[in-house]
Design a protein that fits this description.
The protein has about 170 residues and is α+β, with helices and mostly antiparallel strands. The protein is built from four helices and six strands; from the N terminus they run αααβββαβββ. Strands 1-2-3-4-5-6 form a six-stranded antiparallel β-sheet. The protein is flat.
Amino acid sequence: MKKIIIALAAIVFVGNAYCQVVKEEKLAEVLVTAVNYKYVNQVGTKDAALPVKLLERKVANFDLKNSDIYNDEYDYYTVSFYIPDGKIVAAYDKDGKIIRTIERFRDINLPQDVRKALVKRFPGWTIEKDVYKVTYENKKGAKKTYKIKLVNGDKKLRVKSDAEGNFL
């Protein structure tokens, strides 16, 4: 009985130690605008390589109006973004919306659909190199292509594919 009383007392004291006074504060209103949502929807894929996703997000979130290059007199701006795996050259209008991009990445992880198509059509071949290219235009959308160099012993083969695994 003595042990039960001591245990209950310990629970009461420990419970009181974790009590907090909750203070409510009103935060300032935040306005979120999706300026380049169309670009993100067109070029973004769920199984794109991580470096590609990160750089595309950086391009979409680039704040042109608060950058050093911004000037009201120009109608459009060309901005280049680089990482070791690739680069994106983006053209923005004076409001910060993306007009078009050219993207190129080397030796990235291929999407699952492309890998499945390669294994099905070229069993026994291995990927030696790959290049992922994206061209985006505001009015036309995005065109994604993969140039892949395959090797099987002394044989080499170059193939092109779209993002769904269809060979071009």
